Amino acid sequence: MKRKSVTLLDIAQKVGLSTASVSMVLTGKNLSRFPRETIEMVYKVSKELGYVTKRSKNERQIILLVCPSVINPYFATLIQGMEQEANAQGLRTMICTTYWDTEKEKQICELAKEPSIGGMIFAMIPQQPELVRELSKIIPVVAVGDKQNELGLDTVDVNNYNAGILVAKHLLELGHHNIAYICTSLNSEHSARVRRYEGLKSQINQTGLDAKLYLVTREIPSFTELNTIDVEHETGYALAKQCMREYPDVTAMVAINDMVAYGVMDAIVDQGYSIPNDYSVCGFDNIYPSSFSGVKLTSVEHYIIQGGRSAVRLVHEKMHKIPPRVSEGSGVTRVEYHNRLIVRNSTGVPRKSN
Predict the structure, then answer these.
(1) Does 60-158+306-337 match 160-300 in CATH topology?
(2) Which residue(s) pair with 341 in the sheet?
(3) Does residue 47 register a pLDDT over 80?
(4) How far from the centroid of its chain's Cα atoms is residue 192's Cα?
(5) What pLDDT is recorded for position 338?
(6) One-character DSSP codes across 140-166
(7) Tell me, which fold does domain 1-59 have in CATH?
(8) Cα distances (angstroms) measured from residue 329 to each of 52, 150, 215, 269, 272
(9) Going by C-beta distance under 8 Å and a sequence separation of 6 or more, which residues neighbour residue 211?
(10) Has this prediction a pTM greater than 0.85?
């Protein structure tokens, strides 16, 4: 038997409004007449019942792509992977940036409740996971980022702890015993940065050698993220100079990502030192400039394009209720790509002590 189409009357009866009011909300007309709670309820019920407008039957649904910024090639590459897959699946995309501002993230979550939005992908771990978990009851939501069992969302995982271990092993095998971690804001809202640090620290502590890990970090407000285009390079440059000044025994610097590592490398050269003879430098993400002949940065490969495409496939499957092709656990689906260390010319044996 053919399933009966959901009508405006069905929604109106469930939310306790007239069909005319429901129609105005769903078409975006005279929204100022209604409380925000009423608008959200209409959006929620229309999605739960599977209501499809005459207009939307002939349109592709929109997926919101949320990222901190697009200046870092990591996020730009991840977004491009998402858009490649969205195009292949006949979906439209809309990019929203937060610059790590929790209020912006909240506003984007409100936007996601609009009837035209079919799904949402975070290119990072949301800073307000409880808010996003509630949103996932209305539309499919996927997050790309650090492997976290407690997040409660469908995820494409990056094992940042293991990435830290890979870098530490490499530097320890080369003979480095004094290593610095150069990092932008390091707190619970940036779990990937914390987990990379924990992986480094764990591996260094397990060696049994007289090895040390120094932390050199700086908090960066969201206002600065928005208004400083080269904020990561600038921070890496400043922190590397601080590290050389405060920890003269350091022979290797591990940057939180490749963009910060470029700043570290420039600071080392500008101070009259060479790479890797005086300092070894490592990064994370293996963004495409890291392979350039003038850079040749040792970095951890996270398979960014593939991760972006997998995130869109997960959302598409949820939107169309296609059974997932990967195993589920605790009500969520996870896809994980294994890390791989790419060794280039920026790392070598430590300099000899004076």
Answers:
(1) yes
(2) 300
(3) no
(4) 9
(5) 87
(6) -EEEEEE--TTS-SEEEEE-HHHHHHH
(7) 434 Repressor (Amino-terminal Domain) (1.10.260)
(8) 31, 12, 36, 49, 53
(9) 172, 176, 177, 178, 179, 204
(10) no
Which amino acid type is present at position 160? N
60-158+306-337: in CATH 3.40.140.10? no
Closest CA to 44 of 122, 140, 135: 135
What is the spatial distance between Cα 176 and Cα 344, in angstroms, rounded to a whole number?
16
Distance CA 30, CA 235 (A): 47
- Which residues have CB under 8 Å from 46's CB, separation 6+? 6, 11, 22, 26, 115
Phi, psi torsion values for 212, nearest 5 degrees: -130, 145
Burial of 184 (0-12, 13-18, 19+ CB in 10 A): buried
User: Is residue 124 left, alpha or beta, with left meaning phi > 0 and alpha meaning psi from -120 to 50?
Assistant: beta
The letter for the amino acid at 310 is: S
Over the stretch 130-152, which tens digit does the pLDDT of each residue have? 999 999 988 899 999 887 667 78
User: Quick one: pLDDT at residue 329?
Assistant: 43
- Each residue of 217-270: pLDDT tens digit? 999 988 888 888 899 999 999 999 999 999 999 999 999 999 999 999 999 999
Look up the CATH number of domain 160-300: 3.40.50.2300
Instruction: Compute and round to an integer the Cα radius of gyration of the chain.
Output: 24
Q: Which two tokens stand for residue 61?
A: 């649904």
Q: Residue 276, preceding bond cis, omega within 30 degrees?
A: yes
Structure tokens, 135: 């949103």
Residue boundaries of the structural domains of the chain: 1-59, 60-158+306-337, 160-300
For residue 343, pLDDT beyond 90: yes
pLDDT in tens, 184-213: 988 877 888 999 999 999 999 988 778 999
- Give the integer Cα–Cα distance in Å for 83 and 94: 10
Tell me how far apart the alpha carbons of residues 82 and 142 are, in angstroms, rounded to a whole number: 12
Backbone angles phi, psi at 179, to 5 degrees: -120, 140
